[in-house]
Every structure is written in C-alpha cells, then in structure tokens.
Amino acid sequence: MSSTLTHLECSFCGRILDANRLQNLCPDCQSPLLARYDLARVREAVTPAEIEHRPHGLWRWHELLPVSDPHCRLTLGEGGTPLIQAHRLAERVGLTTLYIKDEGLNPTGSFKARGMAVAVSRALELGARTLVTPTAGNAGGAMAAYAALAGLEAHVFMPRDAPLLNQLEVQMYGAHLTLVDGLINDAAQLAAAEAAKHNWFDVSTLKEPYRIEGKKTMGLELALHFAENGHWQLPDVVFYPTGGGVGLIGMWKAFDEMVALGWVEKRRPRLVVVQSDGCAPIVKAFEAHADSAQVWQNAHTIASGLRVPAVRGDRLVLRALRETGGTAIAVSDAEILEAQRLIAQLAGVFAAPEGAATYAGLVKLVQSGWIKPDERVLLYNTGTGMKYTHLLTPPS
Q1: What DSSP assignment string belongs to 316-348?
Q2: Which residues contact 228 (CB under 8 A, 6 or more apart)?
Q3: Residue 251 forms part of a structural domain
C-alpha cells in the first residue's frame, strides 16, 4: 500500500496546501505545516498485529509516512531502537520502573536520522536536487548521509564552535560545509539566504513538513514496546530534551493519530520538555503561561543540541505540553554531566548531553512530587555520547 497522505495543513491558521509539491512554511502566516493522512483508509488497510510482524525499522509505518514510491524510501537502518529498562537508575531516583529509549543506536548516531530519512526521501520523490540545512551538529550529519545515499547535493551551515566530529562527519558524506560565527539561528539565516539565491530546498527544523513525520515514529514505536496481551499501550510520562522540539511535536502527533485509529486508549503520556538553564525559551514561556516563546539571549550550554535560542515550533511544543498535562524544566550543565555519568554507570548507556539532561530533569520532578513512584517513566536519549568526548576529562 502507498502512503495515505492527503494534504498539508498550517499548524496555526489552518490553511490547506498541496502535499504533492515541495513546500516550506505556510505562505500566509509563516508557520510550520503538518502532514495529514486518510486515517479511515489506514484503519481499513492495516491492523496493529500486522505492523507488529513487519521487519523492524522506520518504514514499517509506511501507511502513516508521506513517501508513496518504495524506491524513494531511503534507509540506512534507522528506527527500531531498543527500549532499555534501567532498574538501577530507577532505584536510585525512587521509581518502580524507568526506561530509556536509546536513539544513539540510529545511523549517524542520533535521532536526527529518523527525521532526515523521511525528509530527504520525500524531497527526492518530489524532485528536489539540492538540499540545505542549518545545524547544531547532528542534523547536518544525518542530512548529509541520506543525501549521499540518494545522490543529492547537500549544503550544511553550522556554528564554528560545533563539535569537530560533527564537522568532519558532514564532510565525509560529501556535503558542502559552511562554518558560521554565531549560533544555530545565525546559521539558519545564512542558510535561508543561500537557499533563496540558489533555489535549494531548505530542510531546516520545522521549515518543511516531513522531518516531523520521521520523528513521530519514536512515538509510534512506544506503543509496540509497551504492548500487553495484544493491546498497544503508552507510558505515563515521557521526558524529552528539547532544542527545536521536532521530536516532541512528532510524538504528540503520533499519539493523536493512534488514538484516532483506535490503536491506543485516549490517555496520552504527560510530555516533559527538558532544556538547559543556559538556553530555556520553552521553559520560560511555559512558566509564564505564554502561547509562544521569546528568543533567548546569550544562549550557552555544553549540550549543543539544546542551544537553540529561537524555537520555530514554540506554539506547537507549548500546546503539546498543555494538552497532555505535561511540564517543562531546566537543568544546569553540571547536572547534565553528572546525569551522563550516572546513566552510563547504572544503565550501561553512554548518553549524549542532551539525553542525559532528561535524567537530571527527572530527579527534580521526582523530588518535587510531580512524578509518582509507581508511574512508568521513559527518558529519551537522543544521541550517542561518543560524539561528545571532548566534554569529558581523560583518565589520569
């Protein structure tokens, strides 16, 4: 069966747009676009049991993904990452059950592979020849890898102080790398200008509609992980490290689609945004009961993926938190490094700083009573710590 994609919908003003041509932001209000599907057709075409018996990986969900031509469904083996029950880590923080979804085992070492696999596949299907993206590091490497697989030209704009491994990775995949003085928002401005000048297709965070679709498979997979006696279920609370917020938006969208399909019950997990206290625009907006976030000034943190001062999907992230009864919390760099050590030593996962931030946030919310001891809690580790060894002190 081909994709059941029907149209694109503006996430703010509701304008409907053609899904069969390359699209970026809504032409009316410049808000992100969301892919919409014929869910009745999906319900008739496939059952949860059939999906369970398919090979692991992102494309097992192809009815709920936007690429119709199987030859355009690029894959490097992304998706199907393990769910690890962290017994010792749970005991330390006073929980009965604690899980880690380890996205560091994706191709290119992070969850960015999911979003870029689908975005590049759809761009290929719709005839794009040259792609461009700004990045804090991992998204650039992922885009470069899938562009290489597809035979597309790729341009990556990255802050000059991004980890050296991220820079080398982009170049190894054959993409054109431009280093920018400043932060990711400065890289985004230059990338957008060059895209307009050369007619490149911009796959920046939330500037096209399909990276969300790849990331939503993280949420779809949770229903499989927590299935009992053939009934798909979801955890009680999901902690997610949030820079641009695409993954959180994607999971929120996945939960809604599964509820509409009748695949899970209406109760959704409470979503928790975790940010660095050196760059926490979503936390500040959530605490102020605002509908949008302001640009964070003088952003700084060791977690490069969290150093995103301007969040394009701020309205969607805040809406997801409030609709699920979630919250947002900021942690320090010192807390991130301590959490990274504890996750490695008590759960066997060498987490990226962004992923480690989720445990630091969990500790605070357990101490405050917001998390109950018997709740099923899941942390997302979004990347491998192997890419961040420059932050660690060598043994003496």
Answers
A1: HHHHHHHHTT-EEEEE-HHHHHHHHHHHHHHH-
A2: none
A3: yes
Q: Is residue 40 part of a domain?
A: no
- Ramachandran category for residue 16: left, alpha or beta (phi over 0 → left; psi -120 to 50 → alpha): beta
What confidence tier does 202 reach under pLDDT thresholds 50, 70, 90?
very high
Q: Where does residue 228 rank: exposed (0-12), middle (13-18), buried (19+ CB within 10 A)?
A: exposed
Among candidate residues 309, 302, 315, 283, the one with its CA nearest the CA of residue 11: 315
pLDDT, tens digit, 9 for 90 and up, residues 232-262:
999 999 999 999 999 999 999 999 999 999 9
Q: Which CA distances in Å does 14 have to 83, 130, 135, 214, 365?
A: 36, 29, 28, 22, 35
User: Using CA atoms, how far apart are residues 92 and 205, in angstroms rounded to an integer?
Assistant: 36
C-alpha 48/C-alpha 68 separation (Å) is 20
The string of DSSP codes covering 244-281 is S-HHHHHHHHHHHHHHHHTSS-S--PEEEEEEETTB-H
Range of the domain at 384: 83-110+210-391
DSSP 384: B
Tell which residue, 271, 270, 293, 291, has the closest CA to residue 282.
293
DSSP 8-state class, residue 210? S
Tell me the C-alpha distance between 103 and 106, whole Å.
6
In a domain, 5, yes or no: no
* Residue 216 structure tokens: 């939503």
Interstrand relation of 153-159 and 237-241 (parallel, antiparallel or unpaired): unpaired
Distance separating alpha carbons of residues 154 and 143, to the nearest angstrom: 8
The residue length of the chain stands at 396
Residue 322 lies in a domain: yes
Measured distance CA(195)–CA(111) in Å, rounded: 25
Closest CA to 155 of 172, 178, 128: 178
Cα–Cα–Cα angle for 148, 141, 181, rounded to 5 degrees? 125
Give me the number of domains the chain comprises: 1
CATH number at residue 271: 3.40.50.1100
pLDDT in tens, 31-67: 999 999 999 999 999 999 999 999 999 999 999 999 9
With vertex at residue 51, the alpha carbon angle to CA 48 and CA 56, rounded to the nearest 5 degrees, is 140
pLDDT (mean) for 11-19: 97
